[in-house]
Design goal:
It is a single chain. This protein is mostly beta strands. It folds into two domains: 90 residues, no CATH class; 108 residues, Beta Barrel (Lipocalin), CATH 2.40.128. Helices cover 5% and strands 49% of the residues. The protein is built from one helix and 20 strands. Strands 2, 3, 4, 5, 6, 7, 8, 9, 10 and 11 form a ten-stranded antiparallel sheet that branches. Strands 12-14-15-16-17-18-19-20 form an eight-stranded antiparallel barrel. The longest helix is centred in the C-terminal third of the chain and has 12 residues. It is elongated, with a radius of gyration of 22 Å.
Length: 236
C-alpha cells in the first residue's frame, strides 16, 4: 500500500534523537588535516601531513615515505621536492577519470623518476543534483543503522529513496542553496529497531525547505530550520 505524506502534517512516529554534542576541546591547536590526492592507471594515493609525504603507488606495490620538505609557492599552487618524491599541486579543477567526481586541485607526482597525474584537495560539489545518488550517514545527528539500507536519488525533478524503512518518492526543487521536497509518497511498512525512528526524523526534517551545503570531503548536508541535519555521502 502507498500513502500520500503531506510533510507538514506528518505525525511524530518517534521522538527525534538530539544531535550529538562535540567532545570537549583539549588545550593546544588541533592537528592539521592531511592533504589527500589520488590517480588512476596505475592507481596511486598520496597523503601529505605536516611531518611526512606518504605515497602508495602501482596499486600498492610501490610505497615511498619521506619527511615533509615543506611547501614552496609555485604558479597557482605549491610544490614539495625531495630526492625520491616530488609533488606539484595546481589550483585547477580536476576529474579523476573514473567517475564524475571533481576535485579542487590538479596534482602531478614524480615518484622515483616516474611521472603520474591525478587530483587532490577538496571534493567539489556536483553542478546539479539531478542524476546523483547518495546514502545516509546520519539523520538528526545520529548515525544511521548499519543493518537498514538507505538511499536518496535525484532524477530530473523527482527524488526517491529510503531513510531506513519505507520507500518514498516525490517532486523536488533545488535553487539558491535550498532544497524543497514534496509532497512525498511512501509505502506503509513497519520496521523494527532504528529504521522507523530515523525515517521519522528524516520526514520531519523535510517537512520544510532545507539548506544544501557540501563538506570538503564531498558529503551533502541538509539542514532544517531548527538545526536538524541529514548527512549523506555520494555513491559513485
Amino acid at each position: 500500500m502507498i500513502r500520500n505524506l503531506p510533510l507538514l502534517a506528518l505525525p511524530l512516529l518517534a521522538a527525534c534523537a538530539p544531535a550529538t554534542e562535540s567532545p570537549p576541546q583539549t588545550s593546544g591547536d588541533p592537528p592539521a588535516a592531511a592533504y589527500m590526492a589520488l590517480g588512476t592507471e596505475p592507481g596511486w594515493t598520496l597523503e601529505i601531513t605536516p611531518d611526512r609525504l606518504n605515497y602508495d603507488g602501482d596499486y600498492g606495490a610501490t610505497k615511498i615515505m619521506v619527511p615533509n620538505p615543506g611547501a614552496k609557492p609555485s604558479l597557482d599552487g605549491r610544490t614539495y621536492v625531495s630526492a625520491r618524491l616530488s609533488v606539484m599541486i595546481t589550483t585547477a579543477p580536476c576529474n579523476d577519470g573514473m567517475s564524475d567526481r571533481r576535485y579542487a586541485d590538479t596534482v602531478r607526482v614524480i615518484a622515483d623518476g616516474k611521472t603520474l597525474n591525478g587530483c587532490g584537495g577538496k571534493v567539489l560539489p556536483p553542478d546539479t543534483l539531478a542524476g546523483s545518488n547518495w546514502t545516509f550517514v546520519s539523520i538528526g545527528g545520529v548515525a544511521v543503522a548499519q543493518d537498514r539500507p538507505t538511499s536518496l536519488q535525484f532524477d530530473g525533478t523527482r527524488l526517491s529513496g529510503s531513510a531506513g524503512c519505507n520507500r518514498f518518492s516525490g517532486s523536488y526543487k533545488a535553487a539558491d542553496g535550498t532544497l524543497t521536497a514534496g509532497p512525498l509518497m511512501a509505502t506503509e511498512m513497519a520496521c523494527p529497531g532504528a529504521g522507523m525512528t530515523q525515517e521519522a526524523a528524516f520526514f520531519q526534517l523535510m517537512a520544510t525547505p532545507v539548506s544544501l551545503t557540501f563538506a570538503d570531503d564531498g558529503t551533502l548536508v541538509l539542514t532544517g530550520s531548527e538545526g536538524r541535519t541529514a548527512v549523506l555521502k555520494r555513491v559513485i
